[in-house]
């Protein structure tokens, strides 16, 4: 069982294996020492990177997801008898594998968050018939773009970690598929899944756990940032605002994944109102307990919600797929009410932070930057002179399986917010920096 989980599809069989460290610990080291990991500190989470020392970036978000996921994995490993059986390589939860998957789950996000992803996908699809998607880009980075001594195939991670990152086990190029893996990396992922005998469309328990812990972080940490920024005001006027409630209901109804939450079982508007009312009442209670100290109240609210979600994660049978699922559980069954509560809190963060008109103005600026960078680089004869030489060298060595449009998308998507703005300023502003600055 260990051999199939610790197999490295990209690494030569003759490669030296460390006897001092577990294979998954080697993966952890490769991930946190990679340039892609460091660049997450300069990529937007909700607020633009550089908005302030307090607010989360993709880096701090990923670390927080990893912390939650590792703690839950340790608890499940200790308390769930099923996991002790190790019946199947995909039905195992190893805390280090889950931590690695959590650290790497946002590697593929381009600068400027979801707006950057949206713009790159639109341009690639419209002009070149290609797709861009953050989860697919994760695998492009991990299995192709990242450089490691002696390797031409990324970081050469173990099968368990690669499949632990694979939330969407599908070929992205399939008709109507919005999330998945690019064809170039899907060949290897599909072969790993075949060797593991994974049911079609099912993720490993480790991938499912990482995904739910990501949702927990979104529904708690982003709200904490929103309260700190004043975008979410902790008073009845804000929480009872009919416009806010209407927007939340619309976000729920327009979500393509709404079928997962059983919204038809409840009155959506009534539940939204109840969750908001309960949240404000809890805030007021904790505010009094914390001697009316807002910063302590924010942290305590976040901690209690993380605990309430994380403590309810467990493993259930999934008879529809003949598999197992990680879920929020109460009395031996999936707690759909708590799942819907988490979704409402996620939508609250989205509506109040992402859809704020000032944020939308910044996103429009981000859209312009990405589009102008693309226009500057997409003509190969001109673009190759204004892209860093090490990128051009890599392209020349591997252009047999690297089209120029995909190369340009790879280059832009690897930029931090600040670096994208810097290159844009060099190309289109009257003056910026010095030619002797190192890229």
What features would you describe in this structure?
Residues 58-219 form the HD domain. This protein is mainly alpha-helical. 60% of the residues lie in helices and 4% in strands. It is built from 21 helices and 3 strands. It has helices spanning 2-6, 23-32, 35-39, 58-79, 81-85, 95-104, 113-128, 134-145, 159-165, 183-196, 205-228, 236-239, 242-254, 268-289, 294-310, 336-354, 357-377, 380-383, 389-398, 404-413, 417-428, and strands spanning 313-318, 323-330, 333-334. It has a 3-stranded antiparallel sheet with strand order 1-2-3. Strand 2 (323-330) and strand 3 form a beta hairpin. Helix 11 runs antiparallel to helix 15 (294-310), helix 11 crosses helix 16 (336-354) and helix 17 (357-377) packs across helix 21. The two termini are 44 Å apart.
Lay out the secondary structure.
Layout: H1 2-6, H2 23-32, H3 35-39, H4 58-79, H5 81-85, H6 95-104, H7 113-128, H8 134-145, H9 159-165, H10 183-196, H11 205-228, H12 236-239, H13 242-254, H14 268-289, H15 294-310, E1 313-318, E2 323-330, E3 333-334, H16 336-354, H17 357-377, H18 380-383, H19 389-398, H20 404-413, H21 417-428
Antiparallel strand pairs: 1-2, 2-3
Number of helices: 21
- The H-and-E topology, N to C, reads as HHHHHHHHHHHHHHHEEEHHHHHH
Q: Percent helix among the residues? A: 55-70%
Overall geometry comes to globular
Detail the poorly predicted runs: none
The major beta sheet can be summarized as: 3 strands, antiparallel
Organism: Paenibacillus violae
Keywords: Hydrolase
Domain HD: 58-219
InterPro entries: dGTPase, dGTPase-like, HD/PDEase_dom, HD_domain, PHydrolase_assoc_dom
């Amino acid at each position: 069982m260990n051999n199939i989980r610790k197999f490295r599809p990209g690494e030569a069989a003759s490669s030296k294996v460390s006897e001092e460290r577990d294979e998954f610990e080697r993966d952890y080291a490769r991930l946190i020492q990679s340039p892609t990991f460091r660049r997450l500190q300069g990529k937007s989470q909700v607020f633009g990177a550089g908005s302030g020392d307090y607010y989360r970036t993709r880096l701090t978000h990923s670390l927080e997801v990893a912390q939650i996921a590792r703690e839950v994995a340790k608890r499940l490993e200790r308390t769930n008898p099923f996991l002790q059986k190790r019946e199947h390589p995909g039905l195992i939860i190893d805390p280090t594998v889950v931590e690695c998957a959590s650290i790497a789950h946002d590697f593929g996000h381009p600068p400027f968050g979801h707006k950057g992803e949206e713009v790159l996908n639109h341009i690639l699809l419209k002009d070149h018939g290609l797709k861009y998607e953050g989860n697919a880009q994760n695998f492009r980075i991990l299995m192709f773009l990242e450089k490691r001594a002696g390797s031409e195939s990324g970081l050469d991670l173990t099968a368990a970690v690669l499949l632990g990152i694979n939330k969407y086990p599908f070929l992205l190029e399939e008709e109507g598929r919005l999330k998945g893996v690019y064809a170039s990396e899907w060949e290897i992922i599909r072969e790993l899944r075949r060797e593991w005998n994974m049911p079609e469309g099912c993720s490993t328990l480790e991938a499912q756990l990482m995904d739910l812990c990501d949702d927990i972080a979104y529904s708690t940490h982003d709200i904490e940032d929103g309260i700190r920024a004043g975008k979410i005001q902790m008073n009845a006027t804000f929480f009872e605002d009919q416009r806010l409630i209407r927007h939340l209901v619309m976000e729920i109804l327009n979500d393509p994944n709404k079928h997962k939450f059983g919204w038809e079982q409840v009155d959506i508007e009534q539940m939204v109102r109840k969750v908001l009312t309960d949240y404000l009442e809890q805030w007021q209670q904790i505010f009094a307990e914390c001697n009316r100290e807002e910063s302590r109240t924010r942290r305590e609210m976040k901690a209690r919600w993380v605990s309430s979600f994380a403590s309810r994660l467990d493993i259930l049978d999934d008879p529809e797929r003949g598999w197992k699922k990680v879920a929020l559980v109460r009395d031996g069954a999936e707690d759909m009410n708590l799942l819907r509560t988490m979704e409402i809190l996620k939508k609250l963060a989205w509506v109040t932070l992402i859809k704020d008109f000032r944020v939308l103005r910044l996103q429009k600026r981000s859209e312009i930057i990405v589009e102008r960078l693309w226009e500057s680089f997409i003509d190969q004869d001109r673009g190759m002179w204004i892209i860093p030489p090490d990128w051009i060298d890599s392209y020349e060595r591997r252009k047999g399986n690297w089209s120029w449009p995909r190369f340009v998308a790879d280059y832009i998507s690897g930029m931090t917010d600040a670096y994208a703005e810097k290159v844009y300023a060099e190309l289109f502003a009257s003056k910026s920096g010095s030619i002797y600055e190192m890229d």
